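agent: user wants the structure for UDP-N-acetylglucosamine 1-carboxyvinyltransferase from bioreactor metagenome. delegating to structure tool.
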Amino acid sequence: MKTLPYPGFPTDLQQPMAVLMSIASGQSVITESIFENRFKYVDELRKMGAEIAINGRVANITGVPTLSGTKIKATDLRAGADMVIAGLIAEGETRITDIQYIDRGYEKLESNIRSLGGIIRREAIEKKVED
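agent: tool returned. relaying tokens verbatim.
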């Protein structure tokens, strides 16, 4: 898959496609031809067990049977939404930090996901105050 200007494949959809490709059988390739540094989210998917190798603007993805829930972070708006998708398809619990990115672009995300049958909740995290 290669991202291209309209009417080609939109760069904004390469991240959710990478999540889906990470659990698809076989090999997949994403070439990002629009933006540099569009693969920042890959490290978070790797924490979940995704097998993704980055070489410049190309991501080589080897599908795995399942992703595993773990603690990950949203690195930007789109990546945050994709971490939610990854968490929903992962085995076990996924905790996503830096959700301010997600909140910026998605209204009522939890209730929308619950209405589709997804299990999701928001937890407040107390910040430690250093003396």
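agent: one observation worth passing along. The chain is about 30% helix and 15% strand.
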